[in-house]
Fold this protein.
Amino acid sequence: MIPDFYKVSLVRQETHDTFTLELEGQDGQPPMSFEPGQFNMLYVFGVGEVPISISSGPGRKMPLTHTTREVGTVTKAMRKLKRGDVLGVRGPFGSHWPVEHAGNGDVIIVAGGIGLAPLRPALYELLSRRNHYGRIVLLYGTRSPDDILYLDELKHWRSQFDLEIHVTVDRAVGSWRGNVGLVTSLIPKAPFDPTGAMALVCGPEVMMRFTVQELRRRGVSPSRIYVSMERNMKCGMGFCGHCQHGPHFVCKDGPVFQFDEIEELFGKREI
Amino acid sequence: MKHEETGLKNHPFLAGADPALIKAMAAHAKPVRMEEGAVIYREGAESAEFYLIEQGRVALEVHTPSRGPMVIETLESGDLLGWSWAVPPFRKSFDARALEPTRAIAFDATAIRNLMEQNPALGYELLKRVIVVMAQRLQSTRIRLLDIFKSP
């Protein structure tokens, strides 16, 4: 699969180690059609290609957006890109957050750290059809107040009163007056009805393990819990095997999995 | 029914508890209110009281000479504030400060310990609930020690 060329229209520093790239297609290129939770392979020419989740809203009149952490050779090179620079994009790939099956129950979104980025399109999608759902609750945990992603957007959503947002940080000093504690500690008291509720979870695997435990303790069915897995994705089409996770290829069958379908593999040390 | 007894019956910490335990605890309970910013107790102080928070939010803090107060955890409505009253030498491990106007039920810790000694069945039921809180906080602390959100 040959990459399409996209032009960088904006690079925005989100936190000290995360940034957002907004991309626009070449002249005449139709906007990319994607589902929330899918990812693209972004290619910095001469450096390499990495999988990065799409963090803009599907079907919205907003640029194709990816938020990532500056962590390896490719993302470090990506951070240095400027408006007008061109990169290669293959995608979209993978499964998606099945918000279309949320019914009219409550939707609980649990995000940890940079895990909020792949969940952002799901939030846009849910909010675009807000009256189709029950309560929408976002529980977001991160390292410190300085690591909170999309801070202005969170404030905006909170002011709309149609989305319940609870943020917690692992550590805080100074003027932070919000919650301090693990994101899982928000689950027992979060305002949702577990009957028929759907939960979308994304973050480090350790965090997801304990989050699923708390959601189940609260009464959310494992068949209604969805997790986004992260593995070393290369081809994006299930050919190369780099991202194999038991019988699944995370790039093709995932990254979003229904929890009860991968429960036996979840946390298995050999995988 | 005493006001505190009603509050205890409705508090998540004692959900489904033996009515005898609730009645016995209510005899050593009193409602308290803390203003925003009020210091509820200090590290090292005698653990004379513990609390069930009904409304509001409380920060557990540790004071460091170079960085000032550091919040290690926040507690809110539905939480147990304090468990050092159950563990010798019955001294507070951290500072506690109300982050917002807070309403709680305070217990006379010595009286509750005596109750537990005199009535081991009720004592065990109460201890089982305290242990769950201790285990949750220990697990939360351990996971946070992993610093899972840090850049690799």
Q: What stands out?
A: Strands of chain B lie at 29-34, 39-41, 49-55, 57-64, 68-76, 80-81, 95-98, 102-108.
